[in-house]
Amino acid sequence: MPFRKEPPFTHGTVTGNAIVLVNLGTPDEPTRKAVRRYLKQFLADPRVVEIPAMVWWFILHLFILPFRSGKSAAKYRSIWTRDGSPLKVHTEKQAALLGKMLAERGHEGVKVVMAMRYGSPSLPEVLDQLKEEHCQRIVVLPAYPQYSGTTTASVWDAIYAHYARVRNIPELRLVRHYHDHESYIEALRERVETYWDTHGRGDKLVMSFHGIPKRTLMLGDPYFCECQKSARLLAASLGMGADEYIVTFQSRFGKAEWLQPYTAPTVQELAQQGVGRIDVICPGFTSDCLETLEEINMEVRHDFEAAGGKEFHYIPCLNDSPAWITGLAEIAEQHLIGWPTILTPAQRAAQKRDAQVGAQHAAQLGA
Predict the structure, then answer these.
(1) Looking at the structure, do residues 186 and 296 belong to the same domain, yes or no?
(2) Based on the domain organization, do 198 and 305 belong to the same domain?
(3) Where in the cell is it found (predicted)?
């Protein structure tokens, strides 16, 4: 297997540090064609669907893509914004604000960029660009607080596959999870309490996480346990008792059993039990997206109200909230420890001027 051509490099070139904020991905447009292209890449990942490749190929191409693409495109259109996909817009903002905050905290030379596991900008494209810019130390920070083989490990797969054809590989640090990180929990707490300060508090807080097949848990995936811990820590930070919140799992796909309890049936049961108002938050999503804006705030809202529920309140994801940008910075800083600080050209010039002034002052004193 031939290695890819390395970009030009001059000895003495300053190398840099970078952080890649990686999210799941999104179609480029809310059209059937764009959604089909995105779903094909996403659902063809063996980390996402653990079915024998040949069997799954026929199911995916003959049944799922022809019928699901149009339906999914309509859902994406219902949440699409003037600036594009909400997930991409929020992730771009997070990356920009994270870079700004790190600079304010003394990490001026750290470049922060975003990438998508599926769709664009793709991880290979972003990693290639960082190589062109001589970034030789890279922190990969997934937008997934809870580790799962279906998400985080898939990011690792893409990185390893990319660098398998690269001769000069940069130093890499891969952030596995931060489901119990104090700053992540604090950002969630601040998000909930800010919402409650404005809209009042519901009878029950529903914490809805993205689901995965139960079989995945039985085979050793830690995702379920990490979701439960995140929920428990958030509830404790809010001073909530065990009867005041419930953990559910959404986005079930196919006929196999997934992690339970399922979100939609659970909120219907709550309504039938006489719970008048529920507040729903999705702690596993750091950016609002199709699964939160359409599935939760539209479909699940309808299910709750149709079952007799009076008030459904959706609490937005962390997005670009100041508390979350601070949390991201603190998580990133832990993985930058030990790496040399890279100065910008302006800082290096200022440092040189300071040294010259100091030398002149010393010479004058000596005279």
Answers:
(1) yes
(2) yes
(3) Cytoplasm
- Quick check: is 206 in a domain? yes
Q: What percent of the chain has a predicted confidence (pLDDT) above 70?
A: 93
Q: Which residues are annotated as a binding site?
A: 210, 291
Binding positions for Fe(2+) are 210, 291
Residues 128 and 199 in one domain: no
Domain that holds residue 240: 182-314
CB 278 within 8 A of CB 204: yes
pLDDT tens figures, 182-204: 999 999 999 999 999 999 999 99
Report which of 240, 236, 209, 205 is spatially closest to residue 224, judged by C-alpha positions.
209
Element of type H or E holding 303: helix 301-306
pLDDT exceeds cutoff 70 at 349: no
Provide, rounded to the nearest whole percent, the portion of the chain with pLDDT above 90.
87
Using the 8-state DSSP alphabet, how is residue 298 labeled? I
Same domain (yes/no): 193, 247:
yes
- Specify the CATH number for the domain of residue 276: 3.40.50.1400
The torsion region of residue 313 among left (phi > 0), alpha (psi -120 to 50) and beta comes to beta
Indicate the pTM of the whole model: 0.92
Count of the separate structural domains present in the chain:
2
Crossing angle of helices 182-199 and 223-237, rounded to 10°: 50
